[in-house]
Structures are given as structure tokens and as C-alpha cells.
Amino acid sequence: MVLAMSCIGIVDATAKWLGQSLHGLQVVWGYFSAMTFTLVLVIVGQRRSPFTLLKTQRWKLQVGRAACLVGSLSCLFVALQHIPLAEATVISFTAPLFVVALAGPMLGERVHWTRWVAVLTGMAGATLVVRPGTELFQIAALLPLIGSFFFALFNIVTPKLREDPSETTLLYTCGAGALLTTIGAPWVWQWPSLNEWLIILGFGALGALAHFGVVRSFMNADVSTLAPLNYTRLIWALGLGWILFSQWPDTLALVGGAIIVASGLYVVINAARGN
Fold this sequence. Notes:
mainly alpha, globular, single chain
């Protein structure tokens, strides 16, 4: 899980770097396409057929789940063109809070009042990072929040696909994501340089490794053990944001981020324990 989160932290920083010369939607296309390419190479190297793995009775859910991830990453990668890496990362940590908010209407779950307090507290932390109504506010800062909503839908759909092999779900996530982003990429297309192509292939491979790591980790440990490790992404976001882009969040953003992380941890760990 730490390896997976480290890969995602590097992927986010790479997306921000690529976003300096390429549109965020094109970066998303490159990410999904490179992930698909990597995954197909691995499958063929194992002497298996990708087409066999595509067989599923839940293809609509698989494509819908991929669409949710496309929406989430599109919002995040476009936002990274305008706001610092660390701020975008901490705002994206509101996803578990959206899961709680959606669990009732979508899954029919009864949500304990303490989790609703955690949701409201976490959203209050998000306002410290976004700061609407101030000179520091940017519309782009709302994009990671919208992306978190899509990622919450992504997480809600995931348990419904447990009967499919993990390779099938991963292949649909990458392949359908590549096809969906191909629709929008031509509208913002700028031809990447050779170095940018190589970087796109590299961060797509990191993305595939990250998704594989998450799947394997959940096969070997429970959610309450793994949930805190998700927030190691913030260490990468702070470090790479400072080293690569000379960006460091101010005190209010750090406080807001700490509130979001604490609220998210409370929600995820208590849900895993059935509280």
C-alpha cells in the first residue's frame, strides 16, 4: 500500500509537470492509455489473452466505474495546472466523506451521527484550504472537490464487482478509461515531444503498478490497517511540490488539510470496524 501511494504521489506530481505544456485532459488520456499499454504487455507476457479477461456479466458497472475514475482524474489533473500540488492532494482526501454522504441514498446504509459530524468537520477543513470569498480563492480549487465526488462513486461501485477477477476490473478501468478520454483529447491536443512521450509511458506504468498494489494490499489486510497508509501521499505532495515547483502550503491550508485527514481516517477506520 505504501508503494502504491508513493507511485500515485509521483504520478500526481508528473501530471502537474506535464500540465505546464499539455492540457490536463490530454494528460489524463496519456495516463489511461499508458496504463492500458503496460497492463496488456504484462498480460501477454504471462501468455494470457486480454480479450479473455474482458469477459464479465457486469460490463456496464465496469465501464461506469472507469468513467467515475476518468471524471475524478480529469478534475484533479486540470486543477493541478492552476493550484499547488499539496492543496489539490488534501482536497482530494475528502472522498471518504462523500462516500458517507452517498451511502444512505445509494446503498441504503444507516449512517451513525458521529460519522456525519466527521463529514461536516472534514468539509469545514476543506473550506480552510479552498477559502471561498477571499482573494486566495480560485475556481480551480473546487475541481479536486468535484473529483473527490467522482472518486467516492468509484469506491461505491467497486464492492459490486468483487466476483470479477481483479485483472478484469483493472483492465476495464484502464481500457475503458483510455477509450473515454480519447473522445475529449483531440479537442485540446498538442503533440508531445519525445521526452514527454517517454514521461507519459513512465507515469502510466507507475499508475498500473499503483492500482496493482492497492488490489494486492486489500487481498492481504483489512481496511482499518490500510486506510492510514493512503495519507502517505501527502508526504510526497508536500515534498515534490516544494522541490519541483517551489510551492509550500500556508498555515491555514496545513490546518485544513490536517482536519480533512483526521476526519477521513475517523470515517474509514470506524466504518471498517462496523461502528
